[in-house]
Specification:
Elements: H1 3-7, H2 16-25, H3 33-43, H4 48-54, H5 56-70, H6 129-133, H7 144-147, H8 150-157
Helix pairs in contact: 2-5, 3-4
Length: about 160
């Protein structure tokens, strides 16, 4: 199984103490190398040796808890907190429901002021590229063949 598949279920995290109690409860305070290999296979990222290293403190805690339970020590759970509503005597009185907020009145939005235009405003129609070329005349004709010699161009390319 790939790493994505193994962790895609939004796996829950448990404290070392919780895992130690589970190991103690099933009566096993050791994990075999085959089980570490299986953990590595399911995880897809950590090696069996890494799991073995991570579980050292958990196994140590499981052995301690087993010894304490064998001597007759009792473990008291945390007392539940009273519910907020209807918990009987001493419970807080029920809250009154809040009134819905009034909807704000819609106000007309101000229209933004236009920005001033750059340039002059004229009554003439805008010029086209063809209009711009009409008045151009060349004072002298340029002979491109005589301006560039083949040898000069070949020297530049090399």
């Amino acid at each position: 199984m790939a790493a994505d598949e193994g962790n895609s279920g939004g796996g829950k995290m448990f404290s070392e103490d919780t895992v130690a109690v589970l190991l103690m409860a099933v009566g096993s305070v050791s994990i075999s190398s085959a089980q570490y290999a299986m953990m590595s296979s399911l995880d897809g990222t950590k090696t069996a040796s890494s799991f073995q290293h991570s579980f050292r403190s958990v196994l140590k805690k499981a052995k301690e808890l087993k010894a304490r339970a064998d001597t007759g020590e009792s473990f008291e759970p945390v007392a539940p907190t009273p519910k907020k509503r209807g918990a009987g005597e001493g419970a807080a009185p029920p809250m009154t429901p809040k009134k819905p907020k009034a909807t704000p009145k819609s106000t007309p939005k101000a229209t933004p002021k236009g920005r001033g235009k750059k340039g002059k405003v004229t009554d003439e129609a805008p010029s086209t590229p063809a209009d711009d070329r009409k008045g151009l005349e060349f004072e002298e004709d340029i002979d491109l063949d005589s301006s560039f010699k083949k040898e000069d161009l070949q020297d530049d390319l090399i």
